[in-house]
Amino acid sequence: MKIVQVHSAFYPAIGGVANYVHSLSSEMVKRGNEVSVVTSTLYTNKEPGIEETGGIRVKRVKHLFKIGGTPVIPNLYSELRRIDADIIHAHLPTPYTADIACYVARKRNIPCVLTYHNDIVGRGINKYIAAAYNHLVLKKTLSDASAIISTQQRYLKMSPYLKRFSQKIAVIPCGVDTERFKPLPLKKDENSIFFLSMLNRYHRYKGLDCLLEALPQVKMKVKNLKLVVGGEGEWLGYYRQRVEALGLKEEVEFHGFIPDDSLAEYYNRCSVFVLPSISSSQEGFGMVLLEALACGTPVITTDIVGVAVDIKDSHTGTIVQPEDTGAMADAIIRLLVDKKSAVEMGRRGRKLVEDKYGWGRVGAEVLKLYGELR
């Protein structure tokens, strides 16, 4: 099958959706399919052109500018009009690329799958841009899609935009590479916390502010506390100032961009991984939580994250309410102090991802959906 993935950014660019597209494309190649990715040069030093990575044909198209983090790619329409495809697969919450992909697929009578990772919202002027998009464009894009993948069941009821399209929605979770992310023979850094995200205004919903505000309470109960913050972005200076203001200079380390080949080591070395997301409309599935669990590390997150239900039911971590810094502090203290429970949670976490979230299983579900549409 000739599969074309369309998204605004692709490997080596980082980010939840970019990682999803890369992992899904790799799984489709393993299964003997021809996979092409049409993307921009966003967040990479790559030039426009064609390349191949891991058996995936990547076509990078020049973008002129960005609107709210979304690249505008004038040649995207013409590229998709002529590319050879049996299935086109687009991704939201990045508009424009998804809109053009679904429109072209309908015009060419090619099945189009749209993965709906989360709603499109914004702050400041972007709030009004997002509202205009949701009112004027999104309904058309969802109508053009042959099938819609939601990575979590709760979004079917929570999103005001998906309800009318329930008849063509399939719930298929995100996956994790259980060979790349796995327990390693490394010693844990005692009383260490790991947080990973892009540090820019678009990712404030990941809740680093809340985690920092919880740490002074943890510091009073736990000796030699350390928080490792992975990621880079224009808000790094702001977070450094917050650390100073909270008196946490000795406890917080900013490690910047963490290469892919080092991520598993970071997950293995930390005592606990924390994702304190605060926005139910912006937070999707929480793939970094799956990566940590695959490495045998317990997690703490909020109940708005897609995988939160499974984490709670399988006792592989702790779930708290968004922006409840007191509950966040208590959860961190419990896991750092009760090391036996933390180890057991990590063991169960590895089993959870092996049983339910390996890309082999998830890829099979997506491929089955493709086949049903042809």
What is the topology?
Blueprint: E1 2-6, H1 16-30, E2 34-40, E3 49-53, E4 56-61, E5 65-67, E6 70-72, H2 76-82, E7 87-92, H3 97-108, E8 112-116, H4 125-136, H5 138-144, E9 147-150, H6 155-158, E10 169-171, E11 192-196, H7 208-221, E12 226-230, H8 236-245, E13 252-256, H9 260-269, E14 272-275, H10 287-294, E15 299-302, H11 308-314, E16 317-320, H12 325-337, H13 339-356, H14 359-373
Parallel strand pairs: 1-2, 1-7, 2-4, 7-8, 8-9, 9-10, 11-12, 11-14, 12-13, 14-15, 15-16
Antiparallel strand pairs: 3-4, 5-6
General description of the model:
- This protein is α/β, with parallel strands linked by helices.
- The chain has an eight-stranded mixed β-sheet, sandwiched between helices. A six-stranded parallel β-sheet has the order 13-12-11-14-15-16, with helices on both faces.
- The protein has two domains: 2-175 and 358-373, Rossmann fold (3-Layer(aba) Sandwich); 192-356, Rossmann fold (3-Layer(aba) Sandwich), CATH 3.40.50.2000.
- Helix 1 crosses helix 14 (359-373).
- The chain has helices spanning 16-30, 76-82, 97-108, 125-136, 138-144, 155-158, 208-221, 236-245, 260-269, 287-294, 308-314, 325-337, 339-356, 359-373; strands at residues 2-6, 34-40, 49-53, 56-61, 65-67, 70-72, 87-92, 112-116, 147-150, 169-171, 192-196, 226-230, 252-256, 272-275, 299-302, 317-320.
